[in-house]
Predict the structure of Large ribosomal subunit protein mL54.
Amino acid sequence: MPSRHHGGNNVVAGLGSKKAGKLGKLGPVVEKIVLPVETDTEKLVNYVCGSNILKQGQDVQLKPDSEYPDWLWSLRLTKPPPLEEMDQNSIQYWRRLRKLNNQRQSRLMKLKKY
């Protein structure tokens, strides 16, 4: 491209000049907010830390286990069971089967050369 001489600054035609302090590619750089970590053991044991999103008030206090529903203590916290151990008459089985087949098909399509 031809360059033009404008008052001492060399500028490529149609591209403008570079400005000092230019923003990043995705906009202004935002500084990360560092959240304080709760280290008080009494508060960690008795309250749900971070549950209060309002400026005033306090976090929710934990209740005794007897005040929570029974199903809460039987929730599965580990990986889902293998497909072979699931009941074939349940909707969860068929959803899992579809998900696994979609993942398998996706892996096979990645290997396919066009």
The chain has a mean pLDDT of 82. The first strand starts at residue 3 and ends at 6.
